Automatic annotation (TrEMBL):
UniProt entry keywords in alphabetical sequence: Dioxygenase, Oxidoreductase
Organism name: Actinoplanes nipponensis
Domain VOC per the UniProt entry, residue ranges: 8-130
Key word NADP present: no
Pfam family, one: Glyoxalase
Protein's recorded name: Ring-cleaving dioxygenase
Amino acid sequence: MSPVEITGLDHLVLTVASIERTVAFYAGVLGLRAEPFGADPVRWALHFGTQKFNLHEAGHEFEPRAASPTPGSVDVCLITRTPLDEVVAALAEHRVPIIEGPVTRTGAQGRIRSVYVRDPDANLVEIATY
């Protein structure tokens, strides 16, 4: 029997304190596309490329869920086509402090240049370009 072959990431669930604040940051600052889906209750997703973040508000998570869903427990790297100096300028325009960078790191496909920020729940968000 051959091993399972994983080919990509479809979505990741972010547990957040406030859907509204999270959407404002990821859509308003980073340009992800916010879309409602489902019904009763309506759920929210943030789309980028061929992936998305599904949002669960803390205390109102959907089943099945992580064993210990907690706002602020994620460390994620998002890849952009936007030149990093333009990313830095956009972050400054939105008054989002850079906590580290630009720095050179190693991504899944090689060298990347990155800046690190925190989202409204204090998740670590690395924004990088190859």
